[in-house]
Design a protein that fits this description.
With about 200 residues, this protein is α+β, with helices and mostly antiparallel strands. The protein folds into 2 domains: about 90 residues, no CATH class; about 100 residues, no CATH class. About 30% of the residues lie in helices and about 25% in strands. The protein is globular and about 50 Å long. Bound molecules: zinc ion. Zinc ion binds next to loops.
Length: about 200
């Protein structure tokens, strides 16, 4: 996929959509290292800066798919333009293998029926590394082309839903946005596409 396909998209009505990327900014919060980021988030929370806002600091959004600023009265959050070139270089998808080995393919009781659901799609526990790499590459590509849906925002950060297609079955997976374009899988299966999520 070329970089331009991710920046300029054509929708189903042949309209050109430009993905204008921004970085969420809250003063005083470094993007990394994570331990320092978390300490500073809690320290400035003591002087009244909300954890929801500081969790968003450093996250990359397509401007038309981001939480509305200001988030609350006296919100200090800002946004600054960021080049897609930078985002494309930094962005990565993380998915702990335990999401598949210990959750989906544990047993049906623990996985709330997800084990049989993945088996019906044609996968077993032997496929966890293949599945992990498909989840990561599909989610990253869709995030980078602006194909994500905003879900819950709380003190831990912004969750998004991203479509995954496996063996012709399409469903939503849940991801947490982290600074500098990292997306971390929280929910492998969040509901079929076309279902309300
Ligand atoms: Zn704010």
């Amino acid at each position: 996929m070329s970089i331009f396909e991710n920046v300029i998209k054509i929708d189903s009505n042949d309209n050109i959509i430009f993905n204008n990327w921004i970085e969420w900014e809250h003063f005083g919060i470094p993007n990394k290292p994570d331990f320092l980021r978390q300490i500073l988030r809690f320290l400035i929370a003591l002087s009244g800066h909300c954890l929801m806002c500081t969790a968003l600091d450093g996250c990359f959004f397509v401007e038309r798919i981001m939480p509305k600023q200001p988030i609350h009265e006296k919100c200090d959050c800002k946004k600054k333009p960021v080049s897609f070139y930078k985002i494309n270089n930094l962005a990565q998808a993380n998915m702990p293998i335990e999401k598949l080995s210990k959750y989906i393919f544990s047993n049906d009781q623990n996985s709330k029926g997800k084990k049989s659901l993945f088996e019906k799609m044609g996968y077993t526990k032997d496929d966890i590394y293949n599945l992990q790499s498909q989840f990561k590459s599909q989610a990253l590509n869709r995030y980078l082309s602006g194909n994500y849906i905003l879900k819950n925002l709380d003190n831990y950060g912004q969750r998004v839903a991203i479509k995954i297609t496996l063996n012709n079955h399409s469903f939503y997976s849940g991801w947490m946005l982290e600074p500098e374009g990292t997306i971390r899988n929280t929910t492998p299966f969040g509901g079929w596409v076309n279902e309300k999520i």
